[in-house]
């Protein structure tokens, strides 16, 4: 379950944090 989302200003990356204590980086251009 995603518990937080961050997208730094000027970045094309989206970061998500989950309740299982994982952090994932997503590329907004490719969706991966």
Automatic annotation (TrEMBL):
Top-level lineage group: Eukaryota
Region (Disordered): 1-20
Alphabetical list of PROSITE patterns matching this protein: WD_REPEATS_1, WD_REPEATS_2, WD_REPEATS_REGION
WD repeat intervals: 1-32
Matching InterPro entries: WD40/YVTN_repeat-like_dom_sf, WD40_repeat_CS, WD40_rpt
Keyword annotations from UniProtKB, A to Z: Repeat, WD repeat
Chain segments annotated as coiled-coil in the UniProt record: none
Listed name of the protein: Zinc finger CCCH domain protein
């Amino acid at each position: 379950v995603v518990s937080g989302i961050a997208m730094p200003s000027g970045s094309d990356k989206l970061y998500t944090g989950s309740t299982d204590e994982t952090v994932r980086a997503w590329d907004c251009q490719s969706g991966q």
